[in-house]
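Justification of resources, computational component.

The compute hours requested in this renewal are based largely on the per-chain cost of generating structure records like the one below. Each record pairs the submitted sequence with a full structure-token output. That output is archived, and it is also reused by downstream analysis tasks.
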Amino acid sequence: MLKRLCLVSAVLTTILLLSCSRSVPVHLHPHNPHYFIWKQKPTVLITSAEHYGAVLNLDFDFATYLQRLQQDGLNLTRTFTGIYCEHPEAFNITKNTLAPAEDKLICPWARSDEPGYANGGNKFDLTSWDDAYFERLKSFIRLAHVHSVVVELVLFCPFYGDEQWRLSPVNVINNINGIGDVNRLDVYTLKHPDLARVQDEMVRKIVTELNEFDNLYYEICNEPYFAGPTLEWQAHISKVIKETEAQLPKKHMIAQNIANNNAKIENPDVNVDLFNFHYAYPAAVDDNYMLNKALGDNETGFAGTHDEPYRLEAWNFIIAGGALFNHLDYSFTVGHEDGTFAFPPNQPGGGGAELRRQIRILITFIESFDFINMLPKQEIFTGELPDGIQARALAKSGEQYALYFSRKQQLEQNFSLRWTGHVVPEYSESYTFYTFTDDGVRLWVNGQKLIDDWTSHAPLENSGSINLVAGVPVDIQMDYFQGLGGAKALLLWYSSSQVKEVISQDFYTLPDGSAPGLKIEWFGDTKLANWQAEAVVSQVDFAGSLEGLFPAREIMDEISVDLAIPSGTYELQWLDTVTGEVIQAETISQQEKVLTLLLPHFDSDVALSMRRVKQ
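The structure output for this chain reads:
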């Protein structure tokens, strides 16, 4: 009996191993390569995930984190290899998971016996692999598979500033091999053969070690359009991945990060399966759909800390025909791996349990369709859309339609704001004022211009100092314009007796001194010329949306759109994208060439599923 049980166990183990060896990693769907197939199931990858330090940061408990992703119904995470990390103050991120504490960085290379790594512990030996790192990386991917999560492993990241380059193991100051004595802008250019060899060896080692996994694909480099990485170097890395896997059983997808917002891809790399964008507009899908590859929006942020901008970004991108959405969720930190960290208002993005719940509604919606057989169908909307409304459509013509409507004011661009009033210091000393904006800013205090950066730029901190007298009010004016992309404006101050913080209502009075707060004015251009409205606010803390700042603009209660759909009977369900509830259901019979569709009232956005009834 015992021999029989042992034999059965051995047979089952063999069957399991053979099954695993025959399984296929997540890849482009053969019938519609704009989407994925994983575990033999058509797949879209949608998530709200941590800031890429789950493996390289030894303090991060990824078991709790991955369990939370599964509990929230999300199926993707993005993580960096460790060749790049950040310091705690980078990009104004509080409790940044990409910024390990002293001596808590783990990466592909083993530590040497020589002290001196820039963030604690010994230097690295670029000729020796760290077995503990590869075991941690494999454990992460293995556990992710248990929780039905796909891992995007980002091999490289540019060094945006000297402070990031100073922390890299391949910087000459951090290794014992004399490699990496180069300008940070030349690291990813093939200019330095010894450094290129180290990079190639890292890629081959990682790709070989991880070949067994199905819930994995590789991104060549995060944001290579900044700080030096060349297209030649990126093509070289994709070729190294392909050549390495040519000798291995399994083949994994390769992703390339193309641009922030949008760009039309010219001369695409033939080795790339997935083209990723950051802070993406639906135009990134529109302009590149003909490539017949998957398109992703794999980083969000810089639109404030509220949920709405990121929910709208997700819905617009996926219903436009995108295959992947990854919200950068700052509620996941060391000590809060369950996604419960309450980040401050100046965090360069949002996240949290409520947003993850809303993103899950999008997943449920798209998975309710036969989306593999659906295509973007903007031509379904005939004539002009109503003012202030934008719409997206995926369709299997004559059978099923996924429609999404949102109000344009939630995604406004090219406007400016002005805050005016008085500020009352508490101490007689020098004060430093800090602006944190995306885009341009000017600041006057007591008639003195302290900051003048009237340019379009990514989130950036500027500062200027002035001597103030305790209790004496001084005039303050801050001008700000929003061009394209993200939008953010904060005003903070600091003195030897005052911690650096957002200036609160306690220190402001209106221009006429009648009450606490500041007057805010809104202009419909970037030159503060086309005045629209004014209101009173408690402080300078603009988080990317004009909604709620000013007296309510007229919202049409009845909105109709014309749809060109074949005749037939259709079942309609209108979905509240915040609650997931069906707010209206109806059955219509369409006999004409054009159906006039009356939309239910909605404040921000609404989704519609429309399916033809089989006769």
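The mean pLDDT is 91. The chain has three domains: 24-375, 377-408+553-615, 415-542.
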